Amino acid sequence: MTQQLAALLTTARPAQWLKNVVVLAPLVFAQRLTDGGDVLRAVAMFAIFCALASGVYFINDAVDAERDRRNPHKARRPVAAGRLNRATAVATGVVLGALAVGLSALLGTGVVVVLGSYFALNVVYSLWLSRVAFLDGMAVAAGFVLRAIAGAVAISVPFSGWLILCTFLLTLLISLGKRRAELTQADAQARGLRRTWNDVPPEVVDAVIVLVGATVVVCYAIYSLAPETAAQFGGRGLVFTVPFVLYGITRFMLRAFSGEGLWDPTTVLLRDRGIQAAVVGWLAAAVIIIYWAGPWLSELVS
Questions:
Q1: In Å, how far are 4, 170, 280 from 85, measured between CA atoms?
Q2: Tens-place pLDDT, residues 64-83
Q3: DSSP string covering 182-229, please?
Q4: Which among 16, 90, 13 is positioned nearest to 58, based on CA atoms?
Q5: Closest by alpha carbon to 241, among 233, 22, 23?
Q6: Angle between helical axes of 242-257 and 273-288 (0-180°, round to 10)
Q7: Would you tell me how many other CB atoms lie within 10 Å of the CB of residue 136?
Q8: Residues whose CB falls within 8 Å of the CB of residue 66, separated by 6 or more in sequence, listed in order
């Protein structure tokens, strides 16, 4: 019984819940951090999304069990290793998904639609999109966009098109970094696990990574200087957060091209001090500028 519970917990991947903090972004950028009711709704949305994401992991591991057994980085997953029955994994995933979507009804119909879309997207991803080069990364990025939209809908605020675009491009960049690690590894057998990616020359992947990384920085810079952003935050002070974004993207790309590998981007975030500094610095600067220093900092930007 203890081993079964351990297998269930491992498959739920609680360490990956860090990804769901994207749900809280609208709370910060809509200037609702001081609204207790919206904070509670946003936290509830975060918890619900964690349950939903774990449900998706169960289903994905059940579908990919055979392929995972041939991957040295995934063969120890409970379903692939035989410690968790595939039928049990699917049933658990469906239950968690249904529970999450059901609880989301307490936050409004719009949230139900967004979470239902996320669950459907990930089912399609597990069955098909994960096997199509580039579309797999775009599907993962779309999942993060749905996280951000869910956070906005939960507290009834509009979401910025620029921020949605930045979220999509940033998570696409991270996904491409992970795929590059798979393509450039020394283990030829593991390389064959994603046969569609084997047809993509590594230099093409590198070029797309550079293109997407540069586009993220440019889009965020445009957002920080946009008239609607200045009107919302009392000026263009948000432009002072651009260096943190530039450094974080550059640091990530250095890791991607260094040969260190990016098998688990969440682990990289938890261990890479440079990326951690960029994230913490950006978050701290953004909160200070959005809630306090925006007007007087904007006087420095013509």
A1: 10, 35, 40
A2: 888 878 777 778 888 888 88
A3: HHH-S-HHHHGGGHHHHTS-HHHHHHHHHHHHHHHHHHHHHHHH-HHH
A4: 90
A5: 233
A6: 160
A7: 21
A8: none
Contacts of 236 (CB under 8 A, 6+ apart): 224, 225, 229, 230, 298, 301
Q: Is the pLDDT of residue 288 over 80?
A: yes
Q: Considering the chain, what is the average pLDDT of its residues?
A: 85
Task: Tell me the C-alpha to C-alpha distance, in Å, between residue 37 and each of 42, 43, 49, 185.
Answer: 9, 10, 18, 48
pLDDT digits over 94-131, tens only?
Answer: 999 999 989 999 999 999 999 999 989 988 888 888 78
CA atoms of 88 and 109, how far apart (whole Å) = 30
260: its two tokens: 């260190």
Cβ contact 145:168 at 8 Å: yes
Instruction: Please choose, from the candidates 52, 210, 79, 60, the residue with its C-alpha nearest in 3D space to the C-alpha of residue 131.
Output: 60
Tokens representing residue 150 in the block = 């869910």
- The token pair at 223 is 């957002």
Instruction: From residue 47, give the alpha-carbon distance in Å to each of 19, 97, 269.
Output: 12, 13, 21
